[in-house]
Amino acid sequence: MATIIAIANQKGGVGKTTTTANLGASLAELGQRVLLVDLDPQGNLTAAFGVKADSSIADALLDRARPLPVVIIENSQHPGVSLVPSAIALATAEAALMAKLGREMRLRDQIQAIADRFDFILIDTPPSLGLLTINSLVAAQVVIVPTEARFFSIQGLQMLQDSISETLYLNASLKVMGILLSKIDTRLREERAVSKFLRERWGELVFSTEIKTNSKILEAGSAGVSVFRYNGAGKAAASYLALAREVMSRV
Ligand SMILES: Nc1ncnc2c1ncn2[C@@H]1O[C@H](COP(=O)(O)OP(=O)(O)OP(=O)(O)O)[C@@H](O)[C@H]1O
Ligand SMILES: [Mg+2]
String of b and e for 115-131 (b: at least 16 CB within 10 Å)? Predict the structure, then answer.
């Protein structure tokens, strides 16, 4: 049975998609069968692997007779990584979903149908606490919360915690697996201070692995590959590998 992880934070641009892509690729490097689910209408994760899809997750959320489209990523040399692509149609699907029965549970049911084919399923979510993000929290066993090391960014963590608490009505065993500093510039005193503050406030819940700000990570995203294919011997790849080991140890 797969470990199902939602990667969530309602704040935009904190590294949700980058974490999903590179953590997924590292888990695959460690021999795990990985499915990445793009639940963001922006489709950044789909683009991050250079996938152009003709069917998207939107259809499967609105019609239970249509299975999740699972695409094997071929062009980007990521053996062991599959993707459920998104498209902008997901934005209108979210609005249509509001009127449907079982609207919060639809992703869970679709994922359950294919979960035994994978060891890890990572769900990338949009920057909101709307129905799509709630679907990811209901489908998941655990949440990873990527955050920047800025005081403005960590103010929203309590709000996310409240949404997670509300979701317990539908998914009583949901837990936060960890908070990840996904983009930290340790040369800046403010960022070091935020890291220290987070560790004092949330303790062990903060992953000991931190992902430093690194231009290779940005470039890999633009090139449509993971940081492993872009610069496998670099520090960024090593950090994501360390994160993957930490994730596996927390399962
Ligand atoms: N450690 C890092 N070093 C350098 N750049 C990074 C790092 N992590 C993420 N980025 C860059 O920061 C930008 C935002 O990251 P990303 O798209 O992953 O955030 P997001 O939380 O998914 O955003 P959104 O809320 O819009 O979905 C991207 O350009 C990405 O390449
Ligand atoms: Mg994103």
Answer: beebbbbbbbbbbebeb
Q: Which two tokens stand for residue 165?
A: 């608490």
Strand order in the sheet with 120-124: 71-72, 81-84, 34-38, 120-124, 3-7, 142-148, 175-183
Query: Which residues of the chain fall short of a pLDDT of 50?
Result: none
In ligand 1, the atom with minimum distance to the C-alpha of 12 is: 25
Q: Are strands 142-148 and 34-38 parallel, antiparallel or unpaired?
A: unpaired
> What's phi and psi for 243, nearest 5 deg?
-65, -45
Whole-number pLDDT of residue 54: 73
C-alpha closest to that of 144 among 246, 28, 4, 5: 5
Nearest to 126 by CA among 64, 48, 194, 37: 37
Integer-rounded Cα Rg, in Å, for the chain is: 17
Structural domains of the chain in order of their starting residue, each with its CATH number? 3-250 (3.40.50.300)
Note the pLDDT tens digit of each residue in 170-184.
Answer: 999 999 999 999 999
Sign for the pseudo-dihedral over CA of 14, 154, 124, 60 = negative
Q: Does ligand 1 have an atom closer than 6 angstroms to the CB of 46? A: no
Ligand 1 touching residue 14 (CB < 6 A): yes
pLDDT on residue 147: 97
Backbone angles phi, psi at 187, to 5 degrees: -75, -20
pLDDT of residue 79: 80
Distance 204 CA to ligand 2 centre (A): 25
pTM score over 0.85: yes
